[in-house]
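In this section we walk through a basic example: taking a raw amino acid sequence and producing a predicted 3D structure, encoded as discrete structure tokens. The instruction is simple. Fold the sequence below.
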Amino acid sequence: MNRKIKFQMPTRDDADADRDEQWPASGRHFSPTPRSVFGGSTGLRLLVLCLMLVMVLWAMSYAARPENWNWLFKFNRVDLPAGEVAGDEAEPPASDFRQPADTDSDSADPLAFAPPSSARDDLEQSFWRKVLRRLDGDDQVRLLTLIDCATKQKAVPAGATATLSPLWSRVRRWRRDLHLQWQENAADFSRFQPAVERWSQTVVPAVRAVLEDRIDQALATDDMRVVASGLSDTATGLIEDRTPVGRPQEAYAWFSAWSEVFEQPIGEVQENPVTVTQLLAQPEAWRGQNISLRGTALRVERVSASYNPLGIEQYHVVWIKPDHPSSFPWCLYTLVIPESLRCGPDETMRSVEQTVTANARFFKNRLFNAGGSAGEAAVAPLLMSATLEVPVEVSASEDRGFRMPGRLTIWLSLACIAGLAALIARSVYRSTIGGRPRALPRQEQLQQDFAELQQDQRVETVSDKLKRLGQAEIDDPQD
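The resulting token sequence is shown next.
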């Protein structure tokens, strides 16, 4: 039976579709110039992304400085003492304190026996603690003068023997009474014998030599220095925080601390960066330590010093706003300040605003009347320093203005900008001068390539396709 073979001649669309299946579009379409990565909206997004990265780095550097958060936590102001001039609470231990430092201790006799521990140093501290509580501020300063002269075997100040001798007689009488009480009450007095011998063989001869103007360097022994150090530590133990300046119990510790400030060489000062909060929370841990502070001086007061063996005539009290978040100021007692901070001849107080730095010794947390509201009590760490410095590179006006980003932020920003510029330059170079546009393939080349594909049977020819379709019609039994 004759069967008609039906087939459809391939159209141009079928040929194009078949060719697209065998030859991907990437091989047929060519761009005269490479597309720039930074062109159009893509380049704008990358540029904005790099700028945002630089801004984030700068914001991180700005947020890392605690002082920049003062506005958020209301740390932009600190409490200062009330009044136009320095009040009585701002005075150091002065000669006005005539009453004994402690009047309610040990009922009848403040040196009544209390069984100490077996340690010899505890005996000395117990004795000196009772003596200091019995003495007023002036007598404590005289005792400091006498012990210092006996330890170093140097002459006492001219005219001071008349007041030092009666004081020493009182101390010796208290010590003798205390020894008798020890003998009567102690079960084993032999363990106290070393303290008694050190007193009679070391302390008494050294003090008698300076009072009688018989200086003997052989008496400046290590045991005498141990006694002086123990007395200084005992006086430091009588310091009470959150109390006004000028307590009689602290007169010995006050001038003893000033003596250590003078005697310590500047090159050996160990600085500790500490915040105000640390000193307020842990005063015992930081007492007597050297603190490095920095801030803005807001007020300077000039107060007179009481009688002392160090020759101090007046102090400059500088109230400093810390450079870290805090509503409590530094209260710095210093002897030398720059000319720009000094009070005039007729001034006892002046308001300033200048960045200062100092290496000071922490004494205690002092109590004062704040100027914010009447009767409001405030505290501030009290520090001692021989000098106060003003940084040359920073002024008060510059400190309140714009701050340059940190060095790390600047270098990272420059690196990002340089990398972005290099990528843009490379893209522009490739699209204009540095790169050559790809030439369109010639027609002969296309025909030759297509013939090679047909020979390799990678592309079906028209005759082969007709044969395949005809064979499909013959093999189909249903048609």
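Looking at the output, two observations stand out. The two ends are 12 Å apart (CA to CA). The first strand starts at residue 272 and ends at 273. In the next section we compare this with other chains.
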